[in-house]
Please model this.
Amino acid sequence: MKPALATASDIAFTPTVKALQTRKGSRHAYARMEQGGGWESRITPDLKAEIEAQISVMLATANAEGQPYVQHRGGPAGFLHVLDDHTIAFADFAGNRQYITQGNLAENPRAFLFLMDYAHQRRIKIWGRARVVEGDAELMARLMPAGYAARPEQVVMFDVQAWDVNCPKHIPQRFEAADVLAAIKQRDERIAELESRLAALTAPR
Model:
């Protein structure tokens, strides 16, 4: 059994990574971060809100030989559920039936979630372990988004071990189509209101 991590960031900052940080000049800054407590290992209320607002995430796994695989998971806001301060869960919808992620998790439970908020130029990295739950109808019903046109096949449970928020460098700012349409509608309604008021002010008396 492997010893517990000295700090949560050690899940990613292996001795090899730390040696590279030393050689490239960034180890001092990260060592100072570790002394201050380092990365979070529990889901905070702020992180919970961000997780449950997601409509698109990337889930990374690797098989027993270490071959990596990244798969997209999406749904309406709220399709990701925070069950407690260590657990994220979601209904896994039927797709192309390749089952690479499920096969990888059967061999190697280590997993990674990558959350990207383009509008706010923010990315969240979450390390942990995941497993697939089949045949639990009650849990499936609890996690299935109401009214969403998809067929749930199973459940993915993700146990959070560490998470970190990256800086916004090089993240392009993009907005969801629904948010853009809502902003345009609001603008058009305001223009119509102002035109109506202007017409009333300039009408012949």
